[in-house]
Write a structure and sequence with these properties.
16 strands, about 325 residues, 6-stranded parallel β-sheet, 2 domains, Rossmann fold, alpha/beta
Length: about 325
């Protein structure tokens, strides 16, 4: 959910620069089942632009209608949406619509902290009854400081939905070919922050890679200084054995959640052999991380399909998910 809040705050900056007001919508509670779970958020501007979603798209029209009262009164409002009769989802959604009135400095600070991979919590206080409640709203805590979405929040006599937001997930792509550009663009749509590492001899700029947050051209000896951590994934796709080996040698002390290699299985074995030849003290825990060929078996052929295959495997690994068809999964779709 962190990436959704990040996108909302970036959009809020834009709307505010145009002197356009916004409201924040949070799914705070759910009875039964729904397409999305409590904690999802969206931003709605006064002109009707929406950033994010709290459903598959069926609830948003009703939210627009209900939000008009929030814009008119500048007071928060709790609304419900009964999907049992309209969506077939067998659930009742409870949604808090509140004015978003963060000051410029606070918004900039929160965004900076999120980009710095800090953990945050959000406490959303909402009324016990449906309708307008001036003193409902959210408090975001990050780096030891509380930020109120608006100034009228009163925590007394209210329900509280509390959510912990982990640091933004990061994908480090080593390589600057066409398939790297495709992977970065698709992965960015998941809200991941993408760092692309191009070999120093490549003549590429960040404009060549849609969705990339940072493009770096470090020397091989500088790769070990990259901020790769347990909430990140690495995919090496330079199409060069020698470059792949040099990158791997510099990454042996890192422990990301995922390390993927492009190419067939025998290429992985060849790369590992060379890494161990140059650095025999390499720990087995790093070797065990390396997945090659990267991706899951979906019959991928094109660069776009291969990117989806790789992203699917990263999601499965980081969420400890069993790779089966949902029709074969017992119980709820979302654990």
């Amino acid at each position: 959910m962190t990436h959704e809040l990040y996108r909302i705050l970036k959009a809020y900056q834009q709307f505010r620069s145009l002197n356009e007001r916004s409201v924040l919508v949070t799914l705070v509670a759910l009875e039964g089942s729904s397409y999305r779970k409590p904690g999802v958020r969206m931003l709605l501007s006064e002109s009707g632009q929406m950033i994010g979603a709290v459903s598959g798209g069926c609830v948003e029209k009703e939210i627009k209608l209900q939000a008009q009262e929030v814009f008119d009164t500048n007071n928060a409002k709790l609304m419900t949406y009964d999907g049992r009769y309209r969506l077939g989802c067998e659930g009742i959604l409870y949604l808090l619509i509140e004015p978003l009135e963060l000051c410029v400095n606070d918004t900039d600070t929160i965004i900076t902290h999120l980009e710095a991979k800090l953990t945050a919590t959000v406490n959303t206080f909402y009324p016990l009854e449906i309708g307008v409640n001036k003193y409902s709203g959210s408090v975001l805590t990050i780096h030891g400081k509380d930020y109120l979405t608006h100034t009228s929040i009163d925590q007394e006599d209210k329900e509280c939905f509390q959510q912990k937001l982990d640091p933004l997930f990061e994908l480090f792509i080593f390589g600057a070919e066409h398939d790297s550009a495709v992977l970065s663009e698709i992965a960015s749509k998941l809200g991941w922050r993408i760092t692309l590492i191009a070999p120093a001899d490549e003549q590429k700029t960040i404009e060549d890679f849609k969705g990339v947050s940072v493009l770096l051209t470090p020397l091989f000896s500088e790769v070990g200084d990259l901020p790769i951590h347990e909430k990140s994934a690495v995919i090496i796709m330079t199409h060069s054995i020698s470059k792949d080996v040099q990158y791997l040698l510099e990454l042996t002390e890192k422990r990301p959640a995922y390390v993927g290699l492009l190419g067939p299985a025998h290429r992985r074995e060849r790369l590992i052999e060379q890494v161990l030849e140059f650095k025999p003290e390499t720990d087995d825990t790093f070797i065990d991380l390396i997945r090659g060929p990267a991706g899951i078996n979906i019959g991928a052929i094109s660069a776009e399909e291969i990117a989806i295959s790789i992203i699917g495997e990263i999601l499965a690994v980081t969420r400890s998910a069993q790779l089966i068809s949902l029709k074969d999964k017992s119980g709820a779709i979302h654990d």
